[in-house]
Design goal:
By secondary structure, the chain is mainly alpha-helical. 54% of the residues lie in helices and 5% in strands. The chain has one domain.
Length: 124
């Protein structure tokens, strides 16, 4: 489980880093940032709730749900789909605007696909 947490942390940091170096006003490429971000009161970056981010999120969740429904293994060395979804939900709670909207999408999309309810436990 420690490996999984480290992988998720590294992916999150890479996403945040790529957002911070892709500022439209200073970029020599003048492209839109990969992910829209804002800063909270503490100055920490949070992923913004924009139409582009929402669409990308839904596509990612839908792709994972298709893989789970097809019996494929979760990515990143995560041992179970339950563990993967709980990790993603945990990350959503701290690093995204309107996080409950995103969490609700995961839960309702899994239910709609006929997948089992997530099992929450103290050890993940």
């Amino acid at each position: 489980m420690v490996k999984v947490s480290i992988v998720c942390l590294l992916l999150s940091l890479l996403t945040i880093w790529s957002c911070s170096v892709a500022d439209d006003s200073t970029s020599i490429f003048k492209k839109q940032p990969f992910v829209d971000t804002t800063k909270n009161k503490s100055g920490e970056l949070r992923i913004s709730d924009t139409p582009r981010v929402w669409e990308s999120f839904r596509e990612s969740v839908d792709f994972r749900i298709q893989n789970e429904s097809a019996g494929r293994r979760p990515e990143g060395g995560v041992p179970t789909w339950n563990a993967l979804w709980l990790l993603q939900i945990g990350e959503l709670k701290t690093g995204r605007e309107n996080s409950q909207k995103y969490i609700n999408y995961i839960l309702s999309a899994r239910r709609q696909a006929g997948l089992p309810e997530l099992i929450y436990s103290d050890d993940g």
